[in-house]
Amino acid sequence: MRYQISGRQIDVGEALSTHVETELDATFEKYAQRPTDSTVIFSRDAHNLICDAVVHLSTGLTVQAKGRDPDNIYAAFENCREKMDKQLRRYKRRLKDHHKERSEPVEYAAAASYVLAADEDEWEAQDDAGLQPIIVAEMETRVPTLSVGDAVMQMELAGAPMLVFRNEKHGGVNVVHRREDGNVGWIDPRNLS
């Protein structure tokens, strides 16, 4: 596995890097056994030390977690690693089933980037009225081709509030999202007609 271990305004020494590599190897050997690369970033937020980790699996799934501790950077990493461990333990059976059913990794399609801006006349009229809407939606992402169940699993593994994906059954773009009541919502525009 390739590692990228860095710090934002924190010096990450050789001992911490070695500890991170050893612990992540042990964690993923238990469950996934096929991580491709990982990014671990240590930072400070007010009174807490923070560890953000993202690990990409060869199946195309991504595991993401964040840990924090007020005093110890190693404890922040351990909190993060424990969250990843819990996610992987929770989805161990589904990850194994996913690997057996799928002979090739998850396919990704490129999604376009957009910057939405108001018309100049409209902008000036809104500015005169005291309204200054700034709408900027600029984002590049990869859209995976997954089943609905795999999309929910990917969303939860990444700790994301929503996931846009291409449905394996019909190739249409779908969205799964975490609802305010804690349940998962699924939007399939194809079913709206």
Automatic annotation (TrEMBL):
<feature type="domain" description="Sigma 54 modulation/S30EA ribosomal protein C-terminal">
    <location>
        <begin position="132"/>
        <end position="185"/>
    </location>
</feature>
<comment type="subunit">
    <text>Associates exclusively with 100S ribosomes, which are dimers of 70S ribosomes.</text>
</comment>
<dbReference type="GO" id="GO:0022627">
    <property type="term" value="C:cytosolic small ribosomal subunit"/>
</dbReference>
<protein>
    <recommendedName>
        <fullName>Ribosome hibernation promoting factor</fullName>
    </recommendedName>
</protein>
<dbReference type="InterPro" id="IPR034694">
    <property type="entry name" value="HPF_long/plastid"/>
</dbReference>
<dbReference type="GO" id="GO:0043024">
    <property type="term" value="F:ribosomal small subunit binding"/>
</dbReference>
<comment type="subunit">
    <text>Interacts with 100S ribosomes.</text>
</comment>
<keyword id="KW-0963">Cytoplasm</keyword>
<dbReference type="InterPro" id="IPR036567">
    <property type="entry name" value="RHF-like"/>
</dbReference>
<dbReference type="InterPro" id="IPR038416">
    <property type="entry name" value="Ribosom_S30AE_C_sf"/>
</dbReference>
<dbReference type="Pfam" id="PF02482">
    <property type="entry name" value="Ribosomal_S30AE"/>
</dbReference>
<dbReference type="InterPro" id="IPR050574">
    <property type="entry name" value="HPF/YfiA_ribosome-assoc"/>
</dbReference>
<dbReference type="GO" id="GO:0045900">
    <property type="term" value="P:negative regulation of translational elongation"/>
</dbReference>
<dbReference type="InterPro" id="IPR003489">
    <property type="entry name" value="RHF/RaiA"/>
</dbReference>
<dbReference type="Pfam" id="PF16321">
    <property type="entry name" value="Ribosom_S30AE_C"/>
</dbReference>
<comment type="similarity">
    <text>Belongs to the HPF/YfiA ribosome-associated protein family. Long HPF subfamily.</text>
</comment>
<comment type="function">
    <text>Required for dimerization of active 70S ribosomes into 100S ribosomes in stationary phase; 100S ribosomes are translationally inactive and sometimes present during exponential growth.</text>
</comment>
<dbReference type="InterPro" id="IPR032528">
    <property type="entry name" value="Ribosom_S30AE_C"/>
</dbReference>
<keyword id="KW-0810">Translation regulation</keyword>
